[in-house]
Specification:
This protein has 3 domains: 4-62, Nucleic acid-binding proteins (OB fold (Dihydrolipoamide Acetyltransferase, E2P), Beta Barrel); 65-132, DNA polymerase, domain 1; 147-191, Helicase, Ruva Protein, domain 3 (Orthogonal Bundle), CATH 1.10.8. Helix content is 48%, strand content 21%. The chain contains 9 helices and 5 strands; from the N terminus they run E-E-E-H-E-E-H-H-H-H-H-H-H-H. It has a 5-stranded antiparallel sheet with strand order 3-2-1-4-5, covered by helices on one side. Strand 2 and strand 3 form a beta hairpin. Helix 7 (147-157) packs across helix 8 (162-175), helix 7 (147-157) crosses helix 9 and helix 8 packs across helix 9. It is globular, with a radius of gyration of 18 Å. The termini are far apart.
């Protein structure tokens, strides 16, 4: 029903935001990752998800399409409701979560508050295929912006599929020093070292 809401920030906290547009204040629950991306005041535009049940109606706001997409995927998992999905998004970033599911990392998933070993296993089973097709940005924590993206493009030009290239670069970035350049990332991605 609502795809996005744009307006002025009236109130903001790490888990909630109120955005006023056309004289109406929309209260939304947000993950911490979205809170970190939005300004303290002024104009903002958030992607939304309207959650409706017999006894409640809530709007959830997201700073990126990937966050909203993962939230919706999590809601499709048996036993995962909006509170747990929001906790997962607040406890990890999209790239880390997708990487954990792709690599069957139960320890990472069960380290998120509210996710036990059984629920982590269910998430792995039910989302394994869905996250394989999901394109996620690799965090550029190395060097100037765009280096990880450049490394992914280079691997794709060498014949890697996009999700394989993303995984290889993300693994390389996590092992390399912060001042690594694109060539070092590509070499580390290719060698798996």
């Amino acid at each position: 029903m609502f795809d996005r809401i744009a307006g002025e920030i009236v109130h903001r906290s790490p888990t909630r935001i109120v955005v006023q547009t056309a004289g109406i204040g929309y209260e939304m629950e947000i993950p911490v990752s979205t809170y970190e991306k939005i300004p303290p005041s002024g104009p903002v535009e958030l992607l939304t998800h309207l959650y409706v049940r017999e006894d409640q109606m809530k709007i959830f706001g997201f700073g990126t399409p990937e966050e909203r997409s993962l939230f919706r995927m999590l809601l499709s998992v048996s036993g995962v409701g909006p509170s747990i999905a929001l906790t997962i998004l607040s406890g990890s970033n999209v790239s880390s979560f997708v990487h954990a599911v792709r690599n069957d990392d139960i320890a990472f998933l069960s380290s998120v508050k509210g996710i036990g070993k059984k629920r982590a296993q269910r998430i792995l089973v039910e989302l394994k295929d869905a996250v394989e097709t999901m394109a996620v940005p690799v965090p550029d924590r190395v060097g100037p912006p765009g280096i990880a993206g450049d490394a992914i493009e280079a691997l794709m030009s060498l014949g890697y599929r996009k999700n394989e290239a993303e995984r290889a670069v993300q693994a390389a970035v996590s092992r390399l020093p912060e001042d690594a350049n694109v060539e070092e990332i590509i070499r580390a991605s290719l060698s798996g070292v």
